[in-house]
Amino acid sequence: MKYNTPQKWWKESVVYQIYPRSFNDSNGDGVGDLRGIIEKLDYLESLGIDVVWLNPVYRSPNDDNGYDISDYRSIMEEFGTMTDFDELLQGLHQREIKLIMDLVVNHSSDEHQWFRESRSSRDNPFRNYYHWWPAENGTPPKRWSYFDLEDNAWKYDGQTNAWYLHYFSPKQPDLNWENPTLRREVYDMMHFWFKKGIDGFRMDVIPFISKDTDFPELPSEYKGDFIAYYANGPHLHAYLQEMNREVLSKYDVMTVGEAPGVTLDQALNFVDEDRKELDMFFHFDLLALDRAPGEVFKMRSDPWKLTEFKEIHSKWDAVFAEKGWGSIFLCNHDFPRSVSRWGNDDKAYWRNSATMLQTFSLSMRGTPYIYQGEEIGMTNIRFDSIEDYRDINTLNAYHKAAHNCDDLHAFLENEKDASRDNARTPVQWDNTRHAGFTQGEPWIKVNPNYKTGLNVAAQEADPDSVLNYFRKMIKVRKTHKTLTYGKYKLVEKDHEQVYAYTRSHQNEQYLVLLNFSTNEVEFPVSSLDFKKGVLLISNDIAPEALPSGYIRLHPYQACIYKLNR
Ligand code: GLC
Ligand code: CA
Fold first, then answer.
1. Residue 184: φ, ψ to 5°
2. Which of 377, 444, 459, 542 is least surrounded, with the fewest CB atoms within 10 Å of its CB?
3. Which residue from 331, 339, 317 is spatially nearest to 484, judged by alpha carbons?
4. Which of 245, 235, 315, 330 is nearest to 282 (CA)?
């Protein structure tokens, strides 16, 4: 069948994200590792996924769990060795699963050899690998930092009487992409991994790499929105095109950029095939939906609305109607758990809402990204005490709040919904101690609900489990290619409880119905050829069609019909 977009393996893939630190610990030190992943290769194969995205496994002092890299060509000691890595890659390929790695090149660790050299003297050959502001020029213009106690992205370094730039923690100095030698180093490093046989990269905060090195005051058009400013560096697209020309175009690989600050109208600049930059990116509009205006890590006070959720996905789908390609994800290692956030983790609704969200991710246009544990419906842990948190972001924010005499109880309540650590508790494998994640003491607490059925082993044994629904839903997506490539169209767009859409191509049409509410809902289907429809999948007993042209959906029910036209 011919679709209106070129067919590609990465458009037809389901990507499964592994956060190695929390996946599976093979040697009892409490930290997940590469051999731990190797032990679970057959499990990964059994899911039916096509690609694994591995969060950073490079050598790192772990100020930000591997996003601070001190050697791009070695494996973090806690995670294992290069031999383990090669075995993992081979084991995945044997099972026809591809592997993509994280490319973290907006910044390195301050313990990287480049930075050690760079900071050692002003005339060191590596000086220009980073951004330095000589102190005799006065205080550098304001730049914000995500992970800095004073929100200051400049840190003064006495050794050379200069400030260096760090958009993230002071241990994550920003690399200077204006320097062609640095860019060459990055491309060489990418070739190193591609020659090993990896299948692509997820690119960390990639829109931030290009900076105006005159460091002007934030231009007024950004009205203080520093993220949008960071994402619009002057040479960004030139660099991405150069990277594509020098590296990506030489291999059959996929790329997905993490793209905070990138808006709908800029989207095609990254992924229009003719521009030869990236294949896909992750936008942040869904992340913002339940956050206070302009805040990345603070929850909004009123509940988010389904109509807003639909609008975000519909707008982003429309952008890629003719060109480019989207990505669909409901959580990752930086977000709380999807079922706790977009579904409902109360006992009565947990199973249906977890499977309803899987139905969504796996029936949309765009490549679906599933985060470890999502296949079994893992939930937020909601730590009560700051002692339990490990994430630099939560810990810094807590210190700031304490320093400012803010309401610390309110702070902790916010983190229960917002903290990245919700996603970082270990995968729950079985009902033995620490959920079978480790024989030792886990680096972060395991969610105690592993004891009550929320674990892989229990769900393997139950044909109706979240896990087995996930496998079934992947098969539905694979069997009906129109669910990958077909046109997306909203049905009853203003309905406040049900997200309904069709996916169609030529004479084929599918209807997806997702009840996002705790109510039983009667949903109108009379505008569709519903009567001749065949139910392909449902996470509950088959919905009842009412004579009035309505269909009755249970709370959080999800189903897909193939309509006959
Ligand atoms: C990205 C990563 C996040 C990390 C940050 C800095 O947002 O997903 O985990 O802290 O970049 O590298
Ligand atoms: Ca370990």
1. -60, -45
2. 542
3. 317
4. 330
Task: Kindly give the distance from the C-alpha atom of residue 78 to the centroid of ligand 2, in angstroms, as a whole number.
Answer: 6
Domains, the chain, ranges and CATH? 15-104+180-471 (3.20.20.80), 113-165 (3.90.400.10), 486-564 (2.60.40.1180)
Sign for the CA dihedral angle at 184, 153, 22, 253 comes to negative
362-384 pLDDT tens trace: 999 999 999 999 999 999 999 99
Pocket test for ligand 1, best of 205, 227, 327, 391 (most atoms within 8 A of CB): 205
Ramachandran area for residue 205 (φ above 0: left; ψ -120 to 50: alpha; else beta): left
Q: Report which bound ligand comes closest to the CA of 208.
A: 1
Quote the ligand 2 centre to 24 CA distance (angstroms). 8
The number of the ligand nearest the C-alpha atom of 440 reads: 2
Does the beta carbon of 226 sit less than 6 angstroms from any atom of ligand 1?
no
209 lines ligand 1 (CB under 6 A): no
Q: DSSP assignment, residue 457?
A: H
Hey, which residues are catalytic here? Answer: 204, 258
Residues ≥6 apart with Cβ < 8 Å to 405: none
Query: Quick one: tokens of 493?
Result: 């767009």
Q: Are 175 and 118 in contact (CB under 8 A)?
A: no
Q: What is the pLDDT of residues 312-327, one digit of tens each?
A: 999 999 999 999 999 9
Report the atom number in ligand 1 closest to the C-alpha of 67: 12
Give 256 or 526, the one with higher predicted confidence.
256
Q: Give the residue carrying structure tokens 């700051």.
A: 386
> Model-level pTM?
0.97
Confidence of residue 154 (pLDDT cuts 50, 70, 90): very high
**Ligand 2 centroid – CA 441 distance (Å):** 10
> Across residues 280-298, what is the average pLDDT?
94
Classified as helix, coil or strand, 236 is: helix
Query: Could you read off the pLDDT of 248-277 as tens digits, one per residue?
Result: 999 999 999 999 999 999 999 999 999 999
Nearest in space to 369 (alpha carbons), one of 428, 307, 304, 325? 325
Q: Which residues contact 96 (CB under 8 A, 6 or more apart)?
A: 50
Interior angle at CA 178, CA 175 and CA 179, nearest 5: 80
How crowded is residue 342: how many other Cβ atoms within 10 Å of its Cβ?
Answer: 21
Query: Does 258 sit in the ligand 1 pocket, CB within 6 Å?
Result: yes
Strand order across the 327-329 sheet: 280-282, 254-258, 200-203, 98-103, 51-54, 15-18, 367-371, 327-329
Q: Residue 64: CB within 6 Å of ligand 1?
A: yes
Q: Is the CB of 199 under 6 A from ligand 1?
A: no
